Each structure stands twice: as C-alpha cells, then as structure tokens.
Amino acid sequence: MNNVLRSAAPSWLSVLGLTLAVQAQAMEMPDTFQVHGFMSQALILTDHNDFFGPSSRDTGSLEYTELGLNASFRPRSNVLVAAQVLARQAGDMQQLNEPELDYGVLDYQFFTDSDANAGIQLGRFKNPLGLYNQTRDVAATRPSILLPQSIYFDRTRQPALSADGVMLYSEAFLNNGSVRFQFGMGSPRLDDQSEVSALGADSYGEFSGRTSYIGQVRYEHGGGEFVLALTYADVNAEFDSRGVRPGLGDFSFQPWLLSFQYNLENWSFTTEYAIRNIQTKGFVSPYNYDVTGESWYVQLSRRLGSDWQWLLRYDSLVTDIDDRSGKEFARTSGQPAFTRYAKDWTTGIQWQPYGRFMVSTELHHIEGTGWLPYQDRAELMSQKKYWNLLLFQVSYFF
Fold first, then answer.
1. Sign of torsion, CA 276 370 228 119?
2. Phi, psi at 287, each rounded to 5°
C-alpha cells in the first residue's frame, strides 16, 4: 500500500502543477505568478527503536517522504497571494494520501519606503519559531535531513509548524543590518500525535486549539554574517474527553527560544537554546502536570567547495529541569527514565551536484528517547536507552 501511495503522489503533484500552469495561462495571470515544488525520499535504519516506520528491521524504513507544491502571485505590487500543498509520509503519524494546506496567506504590505516596511498576513501562516521553522519543509533549506529534535520536534510538528489567523510584521533597514519583528495570533493546528505527546495515547478524546500567540524579533548583521533572534509563544488548547478519564482539561505551552548564527565564507556556527513550560490542568489524576523543560544544540557546518557540505552537531533535550535524569518520573510512573531526555551526536554530509538535486546522509548516536515518536504505552516501554540512527535522502526541487 505504501508503495502505491509513493508512486501515486508524484503523479498527483505533476497533475496539480500542470493544472495550475494551464489555469494561469487561461486567466492571463501576471508575470509574478510562480509555481515551485520539491520531492524528498529517505531511507532510515536504526539498530534499536523504530523511527518513521520499521527502521530497526534489516531493510530499514522508506516511510519518510516529502512532496510539496507551492504557487504565488502579486495582483498588486504590495499584495502577495501564496499557498503550499504538502503531502508527507512520516511513519504512522502522517500519510501521503492525506495532503494538507501547509500554508496559505494573503500578504498586504501597507507601508514601505527605503528604510522600513510593515505588513499583515491573513490565513494559515508559518510560525516564526527559531531559525528554521518557516522553511523546514524543503530539504534544501535544512542543514541536515532531520532538524535538531530538541527544538524542532517531529512528534509535535503540526502545532509548531503553522497556525490559522493573522500575523503582523515589520522590518527596519539599518546601516549594516536589519531588524525584523513578527507577531502572530490564531488557532494552533493539533493532531493525534499532539494527544499522544500530552496525555500518552490518542484514544482519550480530541484537542481543539484556542487563541494562541507567537512573536519573534530577529537581527541580521552584514547581510547575514551573524543572526540573532528571540522567539516567544503562548500555545493554548482544550481537550474534549470521550470518557471520565482523563476528563475535560486545558493544555498550554510557553517556550522562550534564543537563536544565534555566525557565518563565514566556508564555516557556519549555529546554536539555539529554549526553556519550555508545559501545563495541563482540569484533568483527573495523574494527567495534570506543570513541568519546565530545556532544549539546546550547538552546530558546526563546513562548506567543502561548491557542491559539498559537512555538519557536526550536539543536541540536548530535558523534559523536566527538576528531574533531569528522569529517575523521579520513572519512580512514580513506572516508565523508563530515559524517555525524559535525549542526547544526540550527529554528523552528516550533503552533496548538491546541481541546483535542483541533492543527496544527503547523516548518522546519529543517541542516548535517551525524549523526542522519539511513539503511539502507545507498549511501544514506549519497549524502547532502548542507547541507539543509532542512519539516514539517506535524495531530494529534487523545481
């Protein structure tokens, strides 16, 4: 079945792209009309702990596929209409036959001059979270196949990725740099994996998003020589329980994220640090909690000529800073202590022989499973503390 979906999806994207192009010509769309897309396929192998499919089997997993098609045009010089459809296979969390609107905005820039601009976006906007979230779908914009999982969780990807609402932005141009401010308000997008991450299973009921906020201030110096950003979010949801347990309750998530990047001709150094408070309240015991977690990574990349890039990264996640080893959690819950943290050493290589094609590989050596997706308690209890993750990916852009 998965092979059928994988073969059908590129055809679906090609048909959609051709349809958009034909309609654009028929409607005499302006010269600003553009259509772009991307395709990525990965092979994943682990010695323990499945990640995005049965990766611990001898043949590994091919259940990590990304297919996207985007279009944009400017009906007026200060108005942009842009949208992207995404089909993604990520193990059991997402299926290729369930394409989604990744983003879709009407962007109106109501002020602009030589020193500054300001505008508003309406619709489904990408959250300005850290350095990579707004472009994380496209393999060419990522420094590695997997982004640092302590910050850019794949198991809670959907609520972090985008929101439905309104976002204001403004940018000021300085003598040798720029300052950009973004503030968004809307409803977060929640899925079954959000329920698993918050409550331990996806069979208890359903989350629905409540009004949430995100803001970022970002400074770039010397055309990107170094970048400094501060992000804050207040994500809120309520839970509609199907039974007495866990009951009707509320969920909130407030991260502070500090980002820094320094770029030289052939070297880049990147680090991000986050403090994350997560609360649930109104549920029956033991589903109420209030914990503060910590996430950070340091990353060094080296450009080896025009075609090759090498990366080395250390990534750290702690779910509860008052119980860094997870021992107290293990004592009260009966679950393994190592499910509350993760320490990940990563090295990888990217090869881009020409602009539209890229081949990547990376190796992770990991202690803990704090960011590893799971579906139920039985899978959680079977996880191993130490494990290795090897990925290969081919990507095409058009």
1. negative
2. -90, 0
SS3 for the chain is: CHHHHHHHHHHHHHHHHHHHHHHHHHCCCCCCCEEEEEEEEEEEEECCCCCCCCCCCCCCEEEEEEEEEEEEEEEECCEEEEEEEEEEEECCCCCCCCCEEEEEEEEEEEEECCCEEEEEEEEEEECCCCCCHHHCCCHHHCCCCCCCCCCCCCCCHHHHHEEEEEEEEEEEEECCEEEEEEEEEEEECCCHHHHHHHHCCCCCEEEEEEEEEEEEEEEEECCCCEEEEEEEEEEEEEEEECCCCCCCEEEEEEEEEEEEEEECCCEEEEEEEEEEEEEEECCCCCCCEEEEEEEEEEEEEEEECCCEEEEEEEEEEECCCCCCCCHHHHHHHCCCHHHHEEEEEEEEEEEEEECCEEEEEEEEEEECCCCCCCCCHHHHHCCCCEEEEEEEEEEEEC
User: Any bridge partners for residue 85, and if so which?
Assistant: 69, 101
Strand 357-367 versus strand 386-397 pairing type: antiparallel
Angle, alpha carbons 5-197-54 (nearest 5°): 40
pLDDT digits (tens, 9 = 90+) for 263-279: 999 999 999 999 999 99
User: Assign residue 28 a region: left if phi > 0, alpha if psi is -120 to 50, beta otherwise?
Assistant: left
- Domain layout of the chain by residue ranges: 98-397
- C-alpha to C-alpha distance for 75 and 337, rounded to whole angstroms: 55
318: closest CA among 370, 273, 380, 359?
Answer: 370
Q: 98-397: which CATH architecture?
A: Beta Barrel (2.40)
Residue 345's nearest CA partner among 391, 384, 385, 314 is: 314
Digit-coded pLDDT (tens) for 367-391: 999 999 887 778 888 899 999 999 9
Mean pLDDT per 10-residue segment, the chain (398 residues): 40 47 52 93 96 93 95 95 94 86 96 96 96 91 95 89 96 95 94 75 81 97 94 93 82 96 96 96 87 98 94 98 95 93 98 93 97 83 95 96
pTM for the whole structure: 0.89
